[in-house]
Amino acid sequence: MAPGLLLERAPAKVNLTLHVPRRRADGWHEIESLVVFAGAADTLSLAPGDAFSLRVDGPTALAAGADDNNLVARAAQALAARVPGLRSGAFHLVKRLPVAAGVGGGSSDAAAALRLLARANHLSLDDPRLFAAACETGSDIPVCLRAQARMMRGRGEILGPLMRLPPLFGVLVNPGVPLETKRVFAGLGLQPGQSLDGGEHPQIIDAPERDALLAALKGARNDMEDAASALAPVIGHCLAVLAAARGVRLARMSGSGATCFALFDTCRQAATAAKVIRRDHSNWWVKATVLR
Known about the structure:
By secondary structure, the chain is an alpha+beta fold. It is built from 9 helices and 10 strands. It has 2 domains: 154 residues, 2-Layer Sandwich (Ribosomal Protein S5, domain 2), CATH 3.30.230; 124 residues, 2-Layer Sandwich (Alpha-Beta Plaits), CATH 3.30.70.
């Protein structure tokens, strides 16, 4: 790594649970979600300097869109508006995560940019200007700032305390079909002020045993799964493939899709399942990973 170059990972965000209690009167949907982060990640580097620039490459760079509309640029602009004299520099983003996939790739990239700018400008991660810039840039970015397991609520701006969860051995699968979050929310059919009748979010305790955590997760759900599956029926196929894997404990969609995940008791089970799925579905993005 070049002298002075700063580097951050931007890990995939996985929604182990995702409840949508209601749609607010202002039109925004409220959520309750237990979020963890995967070993699979983009990488972002910063060569500190006076002028902002961004270069994007990597396997999924083309799908990420124009550099000037990237969430990294928008997060940097939002922080610069709050921190007079903010030192910026040349960013280099290597995209590996699927785009518009329910794993918060762009949001995690933006959070990584804010962490890099904080390091370059000697700002604490607890600086409220960092959190404000994250909230302005996107709903998933605040929870990605620390990239550790926790509950998120509201539009994503209400964060629970950091949680100590046992490592979960998982497989992430994306069939290559992008899904726009706004369309999936619209598919819920909620009018402003209307609640979704789905029951309360189960209590997930801090530092549970793995079996207790998996039992609690089975009592939860992703309220966006049906709406996303109607827009992209291949999600149902992904879930069926994951549910049929040997040793699987839970299969569910992450976020607004189309990425789905499965949880296993051991790293070997997850690796074996990923190998078989990759063999049978060579056009899918498949990753065995540890979720924390």
